[in-house]
Design brief:
Blueprint: H1 12-26, H2 34-50, H3 78-93, H4 108-142
Helix pairs in contact: 1-2
Length: 143
Amino acid sequence: MCFFWKIKAKWMPFFVMCFSTIMAFIVPDSINFLPTLLSGMYVSWLYLRYFQKNPLTGLKGDPSDDFSFPSLFPDAMRPVTDPVANLFDRMLCARSKPSEIALPVTDPTKASRRRERGERVLEERMAADHAADAEAPAHSAED
């Protein structure tokens, strides 16, 4: 199978950086633009990751693991990119973990309604799972 079919779209920034670096050494006078290109890509990612305001949630940035700095590189580079990304994440941004982020609720009545609605939905899902589990052995016994 061809190597190019295994390339993921999320690694495109990595390949653009590699291609640009190679071309900067081949094409005369383009080496002057390489620092601008590389820092521009990093600053763009930094803005999207930590500062862009999400109109739906009102939170800043995209704290998901799918948009972490190491996810922009192939998996073989993770041992190198993970410690570097964690170091700069702690030094520059001091972000909390995505699991610690809660949606802001200013009105206590809205908070209690959300909590009750969540409990109701959870109970319905658990009841549906329990009913499905109870039916599964009955079907296997009939076979």
